[in-house]
Amino acid sequence: MVADSNPQELAQTGRKQIEDAILRLLDANPQGLRNVEIARALGLSFEFGGKYKNHVTHGMLGSLESRGLVSRDENSKLFFSRNGDTTAIETAQAGLKQIEEGVLRLLEAHPDGLRNVDIARSLGLTSDFRGSYRNYLTFTILTSLTAQGRIKRDSTTRLYTLPNQVPTFDQPVKATHRSKT
Hints:
The protein is built from six helices and six strands. The strands form three sheets. The protein has a two-stranded antiparallel sheet with strand order 1-2. It is mainly alpha-helical. It has one domain.
């Protein structure tokens, strides 16, 4: 990781790495894989409230599908690649770390806190899957960082901040990038 990278560059690099890992995994499994199998294989399945959720891979697969890089069989729910390669786990984990670092740097620059939607927009990670499940990529990463104690969330304002950060209440929340996906 480059020390002087801005949060958006980190997040976009992470997103690309996770997408590449998913494509490599699908290439290595021409029979197709379900979202849950992809998430588990790449170590991207997160536990929330005692249940495992696979929103990171779900959001990424939706983006890849909308760009024509993967296809999904509606009956079997299997995803298939339209690509070729393997070393997916390391690539996915490196991508996740890049996105987490981008989130942490963004929150460091905004001590008053940011909402999920603001973080997703600022990092260029807005997403939806077939018109719903908006910004689950960043939501899942924020929930994971919260569970690890690396950030905190105010349940009233829904703002995420670093644990020991003192708010200044003078920094505007401004998205630096808007994406239609």
